[in-house]
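Need residues for this backbone.
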């Protein structure tokens, strides 16, 4: 939208766009919103939108809101309902101890100022647990680091941003410490298929378990064909259930991109998200 971007452009022209004075600029922009409203000019109100991030806690994860405005004016719900001025006021990071949908909005003087934000969490036995990667993701696609793989947020196939980790030409080898011996009957992970951006589905995967974190036994291997059949939304069920403290999962890069696809002859990208254990 042209507004309030034109205001920011004007600040550049006037030479008043110093970073240390950003809050003064923001206050001027917000003060002009009422004039835009009076003239019926549509404008972006994203300046009021809360942002969120996942934090690791002693027992799992929490979700923290942040913004340039006063976060205590945020109202939120955890049951998926739409927040109102009467909903719970945000005070500190929200404990995510079960699967939930957090919805939030910013209010001033009893009026909702922001768009509604929503974040779905699918909590599993691996959520928030200690995780180590043998190979690190590309710096351009490393938002949140290894925690992104166990933060309870599943990657959106339509968005290549912060919900995925991207690896160029390397495999994902992740070791998760569940904290104690844990029974489980399902392991799942997501691999992105976006060949137009050189991102190919995983070329296979292997699931291993260990009770000492040193000696691992393979309990399943997943072929490239199966991953393709599932379009990257991989779920492995175990009957009978397994018990382990340490879980290692190797997710293999597809290798060199074949002829007929964008990037042919170059190493494929591997985008992975959310390694879950239930």
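Answer:
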């Amino acid at each position: 939208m042209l507004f309030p971007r034109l205001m920011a452009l004007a600040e550049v022209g006037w030479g008043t766009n110093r970073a240390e004075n950003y809050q003064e600029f923001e206050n001027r922009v917000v003060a002009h919103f009422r004039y835009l409203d009076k003239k019926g000019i549509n404008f972006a109100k994203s300046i009021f939108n809360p942002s969120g991030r996942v934090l690791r806690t002693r027992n799992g994860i929490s979700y923290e809101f942040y913004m340039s405005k006063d976060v205590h004016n945020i109202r939120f719900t955890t049951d998926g309902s739409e927040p109102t001025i009467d909903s719970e006021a945000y005070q500190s990071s929200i404990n995510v101890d079960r699967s939930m949908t957090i919805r939030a909005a910013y209010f001033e003087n009893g009026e909702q100022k922001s768009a509604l934000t929503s974040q779905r969490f699918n909590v599993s036995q691996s959520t928030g647990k200690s995780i180590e990667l043998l190979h690190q993701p590309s710096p351009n696609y490393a938002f949140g680091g290894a925690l992104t793989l166990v933060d309870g947020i599943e990657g959106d196939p339509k968005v290549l941003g912060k919900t995925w980790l991207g690896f160029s030409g390397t495999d994902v080898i992740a070791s998760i410490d569940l904290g104690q011996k844990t029974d489980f009957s399902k392991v799942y992970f997501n691999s992105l298929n976006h060949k137009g951006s050189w991102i190919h589905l995983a070329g296979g995967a292997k699931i291993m378990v260990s009770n000492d974190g040193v000696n691992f036994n393979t309990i399943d291997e997943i072929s490239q064909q199966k991953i393709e059949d599932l379009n990257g939304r991989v779920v492995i069920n175990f009957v009978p259930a397994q018990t382990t403290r340490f879980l290692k999962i190797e997710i293999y890069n597809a290798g060199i991109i074949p002829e007929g696809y964008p990037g042919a002859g170059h190493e494929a990208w591997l985008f992975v998200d959310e390694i879950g254990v239930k």
